[in-house]
C-alpha cells in the first residue's frame, strides 16, 4: 500500500502564505498588546478608585472619633504592613506584557533589523513565564497563549531568514 502525499504548495504560494501568516501573527500580537495595555489601565483606575473610597471612608471615621482609641492605633500600625494588592501585580504585569507585545509588533512592522531577534527572545520569555504559571495554576489559556507565541516565533524566524536571504542577494 502506497502512502499518499499531501499536495505541496508552489514555493511562491507557500512564501506568500507564510508572509501573510507572519503579518497576521504580528497584527494579533499588537492587538493583544493594546488590549493588555487597556486592561492594565482600567484595572489600575478601578484599583485606585476603590482605594480612594476606602481611604476617604477610613479618614472620615478617624476624624469623627478624635480620641485615643487602641483599635484605631492598631489599624494605623497595620497600614504599614500591607503588601502589594493582587490587582496591582496584574495591572503591572498586563502593562509590561502589553507594552512588550505592542513594541515588538511595531518594531517588526517598521522592519527594524534588531526587531526579529528581540521579538524571538521576548516571546520565548513569555512562553517560559506562561508555562511556569500554568504549572502553578493549571489555567489552560496559558497553553493557548504559549502555542500562539510559539507559532509567531516560528513565523518571525522564517521572515528573518527570508530578509537575510533577500539582503544577501542584494
Automatic annotation (TrEMBL):
Domain of life: Bacteria
UniProt KW Transcription regulation keyword: no
InterPro entries, alphabetized: DUF2127
Transmembrane segments: 21-47, 90-109, 114-132, 138-157
Short name of one Pfam family: DUF2127
Keywords assigned: Membrane, Transmembrane, Transmembrane helix
Protein name stated in the entry: Membrane protein
Lineage summary: Bacteria, Pseudomonadati, Pseudomonadota, Alphaproteobacteria, Rhodobacterales
Amino acid at each position: 500500500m502506497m502512502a499518499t502525499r499531501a499536495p505541496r504548495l508552489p514555493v511562491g504560494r507557500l512564501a506568500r502564505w507564510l508572509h501573510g501568516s507572519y503579518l497576521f501573527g504580528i497584527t494579533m500580537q499588537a492587538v493583544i498588546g493594546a488590549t493588555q495595555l487597556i486592561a492594565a489601565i482600567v484595572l489600575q483606575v478601578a484599583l485606585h478608585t476603590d482605594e480612594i473610597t476606602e481611604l476617604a471612608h477610613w479618614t472620615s471615621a478617624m476624624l469623627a472619633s478624635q480620641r485615643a482609641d487602641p483599635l484605631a492605633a492598631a489599624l494605623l500600625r497595620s497600614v504599614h504592613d500591607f503588601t502589594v494588592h493582587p490587582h496591582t501585580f496584574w495591572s503591572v504585569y498586563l502593562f509590561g506584557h502589553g507594552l512588550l507585545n505592542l513594541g515588538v509588533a511595531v518594531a517588526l512592522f517598521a522592519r527594524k533589523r534588531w526587531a526579529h531577534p528581540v521579538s524571538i527572545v521576548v516571546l520565548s520569555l513569555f512562553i517560559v513565564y506562561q508555562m511556569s504559571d500554568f504549572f502553578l495554576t493549571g489555567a489552560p489559556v496559558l497553553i493557548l497563549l504559549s502555542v500562539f507565541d510559539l507559532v509567531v516565533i516560528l513565523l518571525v524566524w522564517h521572515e528573518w531568514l527570508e530578509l537575510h536571504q533577500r539582503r544577501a542577494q542584494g
